[in-house]
Amino acid sequence: MPEQTHPPLRLRVLTVNTHKGFTSFNRRFILHELREAIRQVAADIVFLQEVTGEHQAHAQRLPDWPKTSHYEFLADTIWTAHAYGRNAVYPHGHHGNAVLSKFPIVSYENHDISVGRHEARGLLHCVIRPEPLQRDMHLLCVHLGLREVHRREQLRRLTAFARRLPDGEPVIIAGDFNDWRLRADEVLQGCGAREVYTSTRGRPVRTFPARWPVLRLDRIYLKNVARWHPVALTASPWSRLSDHVPIAAEVEP
User: Fold this and answer.
1) Separation between Cα atoms, residue 14 and residue 31, nearest integer Å
2) Mean of the pLDDT values across residues 179-184?
3) Is the entire prediction scored with pTM above 0.85?
């Protein structure tokens, strides 16, 4: 019998800074609307930044505050696997990065990449093994610092981490890079990663502020991936959700 072949695996990837479930300047709690918007993208893997794990004061004050963590609420029954990396801790709770996946998460670990004591930042590394890929795939969710000197060191650590991953296994690095000076592309080329929009349109896409995007802060970098292309998202409803425009891509490992 001829050997059975499988169609190529195509994944839709989305990254979004959730701004802890609030609109810009924390005017309105919109996590329920955000969940519906994320669902409409039909992504297989979702990278989340500034996602709330717990906030006791908001839970008491807001009647529609979910009883679970925000990443569990967003995952609901759509993304059966999720991982969370707690970064910022304060008296009422904590927030960090999270990954939602339609594929089982084999393992995950959150790595502290903070520089100094003023900004807690993390690198959330998840390993999935989607069929029919038959090998591990690595997901790195990041939210880099606001200070240039901090980002420079965090990019160095991120590049070194990606270099240490097993040869040939696909890697997706996504999140809020705060890289308004556009330095990350050149640094991440050092580990063989390429950015989705830079590779197809010459530069990252504008994502901040959401209503009138000027700065190119959010990125999706790929390594050991066969093909990819950006996925255009409509301005509505994203322009009134969070303070960042999310970005998406179709990826064929």
Assistant:
1) 17
2) 97
3) yes
pLDDT of 37 over the 90 cut: yes
Extract the tokens encoding 38.
Answer: 């994320």
Helix, strand, or coil here: 141?
A: strand
User: What is the spatial distance between Cα 152 and Cα 48, in angstroms, rounded to a whole number?
Assistant: 22
Are 23 and 50 contacting, i.e. CB atoms less than 8 angstroms apart? no
Share of the chain above pLDDT 90, in %: 87
Contacts of 6 (CB under 8 A, 6+ apart): 132
Q: What is the pLDDT of residues 117-135, one digit of tens each?
A: 889 999 999 999 998 788 9
Q: What is the DSSP letter of 201?
A: H
CA distances from 65 to 120, 122, 194, 251 (A): 24, 25, 38, 34
Q: Is the separation of the CB atoms in 110 and 122 below 8 Å?
A: yes
Would you say domain 11-252 falls under CATH 3.60.10.10? yes
Q: What are the respective helix, strand and coil percentages of the chain, to the nearest 5? A: 25, 35, 40
Does residue 4 have a pLDDT over 60? no
